[in-house]
């Protein structure tokens, strides 16, 4: 497994993988909360300058991803304050890849 920065052509599959990774929570949440979470993980907040998307890859397949937001950036579209610290968000691992070393 390798860790690398995401490339622009990875973004659509990363976003789809995020939804698949978090889908297990949909039945546990009120529908409005699930829709808000889904909107957040599909947002383009991760495309802001200075934001890093890191992927874990094996055999040319992305197994998971995480987003690092630097300080002094608005990580939450539509609400929240500008961050005073770095923040890791949108950690997602493909359900089929969980538990692997």
Q: What do you see in this structure?
A:
- The chain has 101 residues and is α+β, with helices and mostly antiparallel strands.
- It has a single domain, classed as Gcn5-related N-acetyltransferase (GNAT) (Aminopeptidase).
- Helix content is 24%, strand content 27%.
- It is built from 2 helices and 4 strands; from the N terminus they run E-H-H-E-E-E.
- A 4-stranded antiparallel beta sheet has the order 1-2-3-4, with helices on one face.
- A hairpin with a 2-residue loop joins strand 2 and strand 3.
- The mean pLDDT is 89.
Describe the global form.
Answer: globular
Structural class, by secondary structure, is alpha+beta
Q: How helical, in percent, are the residues?
A: 10-25%
* CATH-assigned homologous superfamily: Gcn5-related N-acetyltransferase (GNAT)
What integer value in Å does the Rg equal?
Answer: 14 Å
User: How many domains make up the coordinates?
Assistant: 1
Please count the beta strands (DSSP E, at least 2 residues each): 4
- Helical run tally: 2
Mean pLDDT: 89
CATH fold-type name: Aminopeptidase
The biggest beta sheet, please?
4 strands, antiparallel
Question: Gist?
Answer:
This protein has 101 residues and is of the alpha+beta class.
Layout of secondary structure:
Elements: E1 2-5, H1 11-22, H2 31-42, E2 52-58, E3 61-69, E4 87-93
